[in-house]
Design goal:
It comes from Massilia orientalis. This is DUF3025 domain-containing protein. The chain is an alpha/beta fold. The chain has eleven helices and six strands. It has a four-stranded mixed sheet. Strands 1-2 form a two-stranded parallel ribbon. Helix 3 packs across helix 5. The longest helix is centred in the C-terminal third of the chain and has 19 residues, at about 205-220. The protein is globular. The two termini are about 25 Å apart.
């Protein structure tokens, strides 16, 4: 099943438990077995089921179809494979993103422009990572450095904070797909989540569940905006790539200085 994925890579830690839990056989069958076991539902309480892409009726938007039926059209490719694993890892966040997108489509239809809320939801779904940071002075200083693109300070000087006071959890399935062939320039749209000491005392499953609940509640209450993201070249996360000496972070073709209208490598698509 997709032997090109190197599951030893730290960026796949987020979805590896979902992968490890899949029963033998075709992955779409495994997805449905897990969806039933986990009780996955859409915002209207309909069970989530993974169905062949051909089941998506012509002219019906992908997100609208999930919102109306609970059925997730799934192709036999890496992109949709990772999407299914994220559904099994962060089901409440996925549900809120789908609800937001389906509501926007119902209101405005599918046009050349998504609108700001749907655009932010698409970026989140495809290319986001969640940076959970301890909510103390050091944690806020780390986030300030990242938002200011002070890469050496954030990722080299403060590298011992990662794993102890800060954790990056990948969310975007397009981001995961790109990292099958890792390149230094691959950049995530990061959403910062501050957490108290209790979070860092939880086991891995407890932390995943906390993130799923906290982020989904925030999306439901506040919606989404592209202003909520900050870029992060993911191979710069301490311990995620070899030879991360000081010079590694001084490569300005990747770790770019802050600019008024900076852009990041990302990606989203329509189906």
């Amino acid at each position: 099943m997709f032997p090109e994925i190197d599951w030893t890579r730290p960026w796949y830690d987020t979805v590896r438990p979902a992968f490890d839990s899949l029963p033998a056989g075709p992955f779409i069958d495994g997805f449905n077995a897990n969806a039933a076991r986990l009780g996955l539902v859409n915002v209207d309480g309909q069970p989530i089921r993974f169905v062949p892409q051909a089941d998506l009726p012509e002219g019906v938007a992908y997100e609208a179809y999930i919102g109306a039926t609970g059925c997730v059209p799934t192709r036999a490719n890496l992109h949709d494979f990772f999407n299914g694993l994220v559904w099994q890892t962060f089901p409440r966040i996925k549900r809120e993103l789908n609800a937001l997108q389906a509501a926007q489509i119902a209101q405005a239809g599918v046009g050349k422009s998504r609108g700001p809320a749907r655009d932010a939801a698409t970026i989140f779904d495809e290319n986001a990572a969640l940076l959970v940071v301890r909510t103390d002075a050091a944690g806020h200083a780390l986030v300030d450095d990242l938002r200011a693109h002070q890469w050496r300070s954030a990722l080299f000087d403060k590298r011992t904070m990662f794993g102890r006071d800060a954790e990056l959890w990948l969310f975007g399935h397009a981001l995961m797909e790109k990292l099958v062939a890792p390149r230094k320039a691959i950049t995530a749209h990061v959403r910062v989540v501050f957490a108290c000491d209790d979070f860092f005392a939880l086991d891995r499953e407890g932390r995943r569940d906390w993130i799923d609940g906290a982020v989904s509640k925030t999306i439901a209450a506040e919606g989404l905006s592209t202003a909520g993201f900050t870029p992060l070249p993911v191979l710069g996360v301490p311990g995620w790539w070899p030879d991360q000496d000081e010079a590694f972070y001084l490569d300005h073709t990747v770790f770019r200085p802050k600019r008024p209208a900076s852009t990041t490598e990302g990606g989203h698509h329509d189906r």
